[in-house]
Amino acid sequence: MAETREQAAMTARIGILDGARTAAIVAMVIYHIVFDLELFGWVSRGTAMSPPWRLLAICTASSFLVISGISLALRQHRHGALSGFFRRWAQVAVGAALVSVGTYIALPDAFVFFGILHAIAACLLIGLVLVTLPAPLLVGMAAFVISLPFWAQSDVFNHPLLWWTGLQTARFSAVDYIPLAPWLGPFILGLAFGKVAVRSGAFARLSHVTIPYWAAVPGRYSLLIYLLHQPLLFAVFSVARLAL
User: Dmax over Cα atoms in the chain, in whole Å?
Assistant: First the structure.
């Protein structure tokens, strides 16, 4: 019986993680509503980049990356990091490509060439190399990566093919830009946190915690919601503008 419970804990979804993804999705949709309202001219120009809304955007992106790191640590503990990894990674990578193509068609002067999905896809690949490292070392690495934009920016990185680093000094426009420096940092912190949670038995305990169905389900389909919500919002706002 004890073995059965242990096996169930090893395969059960962590409701808290699904709920955290749902919260991040809600925050993302709220921010994008404000962004779209500004784009359609219904709120003052610069609203989406004002301190409160910019803080929400930063916290939301950080949440997605931290959760991705935690999830990779959990997968490593349960099945090995490679189990099902490339199927999930391919979904994220294809989603990132769709976002790039879609935004290039809609906003060619500010399209998404390295947004949150691109960052998650890159972080996951890097995470495969880092997932076996001890948590204290990961925390140190995260702090190092987060510090990079403050001292390592250089004209050397100004070629567009290097803008994914976040270390360029050139200015450009992009409606969603999440470069590896500093955004790999939150992912590595999530990886470290996940390893601590595994060692402390927190994951095993959390596997028995249930959250409301409505709070868990959106988090299970976060990628699909991410890909669909902006086209739907654009359609709603476009119809509303025509009707007014």
Answer: 64
